[in-house]
User: What shape does this take?
Amino acid sequence: MNKADLVDALEHRLGGKKAAADAIEAIFDVIIREVAAGGKVGITGFGTFERVDRAARTGRNPRTGESVRISSTAVPKFRPGTAFKMYVAEPATLPKGTPAAARAAAGTAAEVRARAQAVIAANAKKKGKGGKSKKSA
Assistant: This one.
């Protein structure tokens, strides 16, 4: 999925393509400006964007094998939130009627984690039963 696909996906929710494109541009602009200034942007249920400084180091030119000095730099970093990681690990746990990244009440992350672990355990149990019956036959 790319930016144009995001605009298309949000078009019906925000009332038009222009509104969706403007919303995406505004969100990206705020995140980029805050991270570039050295701040963090944490989106509950989704993840955290932050700036990480990399130290100077010595690398190697793969063609010649010569040592090359790599200067220090700052790069963006994204750390997914607990709920996001659990949904990716087990898509069956995604909520059906509500947005996946909706603001959750306190303690909901534990509930999401417990629900996802229950689904994972149930799937593992199904796989385990199928494998045992084939072996015994």
Remarks:
- DSSP finds four helices and five strands in the chain.
- The CA atoms of residues 15 and 21 lie 11 Å apart.
